[in-house]
Structures are given as C-alpha cells and as structure tokens.
Amino acid sequence: MTKPCIITVAITGAVPRKEDTLAVPVTPEEQIESTHEAFEVGASLVHIHVREDDESPSSDPEKFLRVQEGVKKFCPGMIIQFSTGGRGRDQVKRGAMLFHRPDMASLATGSVNFPRGIYENPPDFVDDLAAQMLKYQIKPEIEVFDVAMLYNAANLVKKGLLEEPVHVQFVLGVPNALPARRSILDFLVSELDEVLPNATWTAAGIARHQFEVNKWCLEMGGHCRTGLEDNIKYDKDRLAKSNAELVQKVTEVANEYNRHPATSDEARQLLGLN
Questions:
Q1: pLDDT tens digits for 47-61?
Q2: pTM score
Q3: CATH class of this structure's domain 3-271
C-alpha cells in the first residue's frame, strides 16, 4: 500500500512577474483558477501570497480573503495557507490578514540573508505572529531557512506559543541560506526527530533544485512543495505552463517511491486539521 504525500502548491510568491512568465497568477481571479487546476491534479495544500495591481507584494487582507473564498468554493477541503513572508512587505502588516482564520500560515522563526537583503524576523516579532496564530487557531508551518530556526521552533513550543505536533518546511537552495544538498536535508530531518519528535515535514527546493528536492522528500517519507513561487521552469529547456504542470511532475513519479498524492481529507488528518 502506498503512503500519502501532501503536495503543497506555492502558486505566486513575491518575486516572479508576468515579464518573467505569463503563467504566474497575480490577481485573485487568476490565483483561484490556478489553484483549482493544481487541486484537480493532486495538490492538497495551497500557499498564498497576494499582489498589488502593479504586481508588487501585498498584505491586503481583502485580497487574501478573495482568494480564500474562491479556493473554498472551487477546491473543497483544500488546506489554505497564508504567507506571512517578508520580502517586499511592511513588517507590521505581515500578519494583518490572519483574522480571516486560514487553516495554516507560514512562520519563519529567525532572520536570514537573502540574495538582495536580509529577511528580518526578530524574536519579538516571531513571538507576536505565533501568538496571533494561536489566537485565531491557525496551524503554523515553520519555515526553516537556516538551522537555528529549527531550534527556535522548539523554543516556541517550550514557551507555549506553538502547539504540537509541529509542521516544518525546510527551504533549500536560496542563495546565502541553506544549500540544496541531500546531506543537509538528512541532517535536518535527523535533528527534527530529536527536538520535535512528533513533527511532520516538507522541503522546498528553489529554482533548478525543485524537482530534485521533491524526489528526496518522496524517498525520505516527507511531503512535497512545488509551484511557480519557487521555480518558473519545467526543466532546463522551457518554462512551466502552469502550477498544475509542476504538480503533475511530482504526481507522475510518486508511485516510484511507494507514495500517492494525499487527498484533502488525508492531508488534514496528517496535519491534525479539522
């Protein structure tokens, strides 16, 4: 019997623009349609950023709500995760949409160098976001861009700001942060088993590392993230046609690793969501 794998589709992100690829969805209507296409081919969790009309990153609660309502309507049971990521967003507004109570929200538990600046997440700010997620009964996805962030998450549990079981995402391949090396992912998963033994995990490979990391996750028993936020190419020769095409790339090889795409019900059970 195959084991379920939660496939997260990161549909938009903060970086890709229409000038990079016409496939990236930037309006709420485009995002709903793109998510539905990905849902139909096996994605059970959607990671959502929203954009202003000029395609710059946005924290507009109304835009998040529009996407959330559309996904609920057209993708029954799909897990909805809002991004609190900071690239291009005012720090004080990064949690402004959490009152809409998505199923999940991303939570980076420390600061890290990015290619063109510092992704700042000071301790007090992290604690505040975690407290808001507790208040609104939102399950955090702990984003680990550096090793210390894993131990910071364990400290949040000790402080009562993060409930177990924890869900962690390891981000591999961002320049200046964790490189996409199998030995590093092996180490991270081993440490996760030590410090948060009941946790579930996924990993995201950035750019050309996306599919390679997908296959590591399938083999190691983790879950997968794909989508145009992290990588706009299908392979080295062409752009991906859609988020759904990147999801299909994962589903087509899952069986080789004795895995199958988790249904929404299976994903919710694995993550302890109602």
A1: 999 999 999 999 999
A2: 0.97
A3: alpha beta
